[in-house]
């Protein structure tokens, strides 16, 4: 199980299926070790750059539309046979847990397979997951997404693997504050880490 501090730092590893290139990319992430103990403010781990991507509705979503909101990001693709369905199921649980407030914590899923995951494909996937607005499913040009993941969210991503596993991506959930700042990383496949994420997200929403 990851330690309480590791969940709030940039990830140093990817899913067990990660390739060596993705592992090297993740290993390049060097940030100060910041610890947020119980009752202490979450550390600020970086700032997201501006981005403009297309939602499953076909509408353009600009990062400025997310400014002023607390939100959780994850990284999926609809043809993923193993980890992505589990990650999306965890997000659906977070949706039920965090949607009760008039100012809910938002959810944003980024597709890492933009060539296949058109808005229509993402809309069907979201419907199967029971995703309700304002849960966003975003896609866009491959290079824009790759740059945002690697340089913005600082998570691993590679799409040049063998036919059996062409795409490698992080299984982390990322907590983002109202100022588009990164505030924590959590293992999406660890129920206890996801529970900590929900607690941290609620605390961040209240303090804002």
Account of the protein in words:
- The model is unreliable at 1-7 and 12-38 (pLDDT under 50).
- The chain is 31% helix and 20% strand.
- With 208 residues, it is an alpha+beta fold.
- The protein has helices spanning 20-27, 83-98, 119-129, 142-153, 191-207, and strands at 46-47, 52-55, 60-62, 71-76, 106-111, 136-139, 157-158, 168-169, 172-176, 181-187.
- An 8-stranded mixed sheet has the order 1-10-9-4-5-6-2-3, sandwiched between helices.
- The two termini are 30 Å apart.
- The protein has a single domain (6-207), classed as Glutaredoxin, CATH 3.40.30.
- Helix 2 packs parallel to helix 5 (191-207).
- It contains 5 helices and 10 strands; from the N terminus they run H-E-E-E-E-H-E-H-E-H-E-E-E-E-H.
Provide tags for this entry.
single chain, 208 residues, alpha+beta, Glutaredoxin, 8-stranded mixed β-sheet, two-stranded antiparallel ribbon, 20% strand, globular, disordered N terminus
Q: Count of DSSP helices? A: 5
Strand order of the largest sheet: 1-10-9-4-5-6-2-3
Topology pattern, helix = H, strand = E: HEEEEHEHEHEEEEH
Q: Which segments are poorly predicted (pLDDT under 50) over 5 or more consecutive residues?
A: 1-7, 12-38
Q: Sheet with the most strands?
A: 8 strands, mixed
CATH structural class: Alpha Beta
Task: Write out the CATH superfamily name.
Answer: Glutaredoxin
Strand fraction equals 15-25%
How many beta-strand segments?
10
Whole-number count of domains: 1
């Amino acid at each position: 199980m990851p330690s309480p501090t590791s969940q709030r730092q940039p990830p140093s590893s990817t899913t067990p299926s990660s390739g060596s290139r993705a592992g090297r990319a993740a290993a390049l992430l060097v940030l100060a070790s910041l610890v947020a103990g119980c009752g202490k403010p979450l550390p600020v781990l970086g700032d997201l750059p501006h981005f403009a991507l297309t939602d499953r509705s076909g509408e353009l979503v600009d990062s400025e539309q997310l400014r002023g909101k607390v939100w959780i990001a994850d990284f999926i693709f609809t043809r993923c046979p193993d980890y992505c369905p589990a990650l999306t199921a965890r997000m659906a649980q977070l949706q039920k847990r965090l949607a009760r407030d008039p100012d809910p914590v938002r959810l944003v899923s980024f597709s890492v397979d933009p060539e296949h995951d058109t808005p229509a494909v993402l809309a069907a996937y979201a419907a199967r997951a029971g995703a309700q607005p304002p849960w966003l499913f975003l896609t866009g040009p491959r290079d824009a997404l790759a740059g945002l993941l690697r340089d913005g969210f600082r998570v691993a991503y590679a799409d040049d693997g063998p036919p059996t596993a062409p795409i490698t991506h992080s299984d982390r959930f990322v907590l983002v504050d109202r100022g588009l700042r990164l505030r924590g990383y959590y293992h999406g496949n660890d129920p206890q880490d996801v529970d900590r994420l929900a607690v941290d997200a609620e605390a961040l929403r209240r303090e804002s």
